[in-house]
Amino acid sequence: MFLMTERSSSMRKEKNFGEYFRGMGKVAELIARLSPDVLIVKSIGPRAISMFESMSVNVASCDALTLKDAINAYFEGAYSALTHAGTPATITRVEGEKNG
Q: What pLDDT, on a 0 to 100 scale, did the predictor assign at position 53?
């Protein structure tokens, strides 16, 4: 997991807790404690999206292969905003806007 506070700021690497926890929501809770404005993912399930929405964390998806490419895609608006529409299998994608 990486954390970037501003586009011009340096990034710091955080330990990936996902492989150690087996309960739903543990990783989401850890991420929410960092108070991010957005979580950029390649893929994510609808329950996780709902959890992040309830914590006021926006979820964005892009097909970037590297962290640098994912961050650039976000700032260039080349991402999809993900929202959970209330049913377990429904994820709504909205094309992104430039953020920088």
A: 87
| Domain assignment of residue 41, given as a range | 37-100
pTM, rounded to two decimals: 0.66
Torsion of CA 45, 100, 68, 2, to 10 degrees: -60
In a domain, 30, yes or no: no
Q: What does the pLDDT look like over 12-24, one tens digit per residue?
A: 556 655 555 555 5
Q: Are 81 and 60 in contact (CB under 8 A)?
A: yes
What is the rounded CA–CA span in Å between residue 25 and residue 80? 22
Residue listed under structure tokens 């404005």: 37
Q: Flag whether 32 is in a domain.
A: no
